[in-house]
Amino acid sequence: MNYKIAIDGPSGTGKSTAAKRLAKRLSFIYIDTGAMYRAIGLFCFRNNIDINKEEEVVKHLAEIDIDIFYNNGTQEIKLNGENVSSEIRQNEISHYASVVSTYKDVREKLVAIQRSLAIKNSVIMDGRDIGTVVLPDADLKIYLVASSKVRAERRYKELKDKGQDISLKEIEKELNERDKRDMNRENSPLKKAKDAIEVDSSNLNEQEVEDKLYELFIKKVGI
């Protein structure tokens, strides 16, 4: 039997880390849906496409081929045959991904890919609309939250470790702007599914979040 776990929430709450750890523990396939939107954002960035003009982005969708593959159990992503797993993590690409993700045609293209992966495997997906749109029939839905201060500090450390120079204040500002954009977009806005369980990761370390989600899954499915 295949299972589906959906983890939603704002940026910086630890969704991807929690999903990866839980997937490894349960031997599920982890699908980073945000990486797909980042890949489209990267394509637009590289090709000087005005992301603020929906018709311009949609016009180029047919030129974009996205493929997910696994390297030693780690998800990586290809954009038109090129491994762009590192490039999509640039801070500037986060903004591009957030904007293009508001467009209906972009979401429909990627949701189709995401659902097809969930049909064949036991999966854990994290994103903004997994429990509400992509996997509304998920066996467990988690809405992961954390304070804006904690989220900014996590993102700051992540970028500093990668050698990127950006202020903590600027990161927190960008996170708050992205939250507002994600929650108020017309297509598939970020919101907590009615049957989702909210988990606050502000004062939890990675192991504690993993343990919490594991316990919730075992309790929910009864295994």
Question: Could you walk me through the main structural features you see in this protein, from its secondary elements to its overall organization?
Answer:
The protein has nine helices and eight strands. The protein is of the alpha/beta class. It has a single domain, classed as 3-Layer(aba) Sandwich (Rossmann fold), CATH 3.40.50. Strands 2-6-1-7-8 form a five-stranded parallel beta sheet, sandwiched between helices. Strands 3-4-5 form a three-stranded antiparallel beta sheet, with helices on one face. Helix 2 crosses helix 4 and helix 7 packs across helix 8. The protein starts with a strand and ends with a helix.
Q: Brief overview, please?
A:
The protein is α/β, with parallel strands linked by helices and 223 residues long. 50% of the residues lie in helices and 17% in strands.
CA-based gyration radius: 17 Å
Approximate strand percentage:
15-25%
From the N-terminal CA to the C-terminal CA, the straight-line distance is: 12 Å
How many structural units, i.e. domains?
Answer: 1
Order of helices and strands: EHEHHEEEHHEHEHHEH
Q: What is the β-strand count? A: 8
Class from secondary-structure proportions: alpha/beta
**Major sheet summary line:** 5 strands, parallel
What is the level-2 CATH architecture name?
3-Layer(aba) Sandwich
**Inertia-based shape:** globular
Under CATH, the topology can be stated as Rossmann fold
Unreliable spans = none
Q: How confident overall, as mean pLDDT?
A: 91
Number of helices: 9
CATH class: Alpha Beta
**CATH homologous superfamily identity:** P-loop containing nucleotide triphosphate hydrolases
Helix content: 40-55%
**Strand neighbour order, sheet with most strands:** 2-6-1-7-8
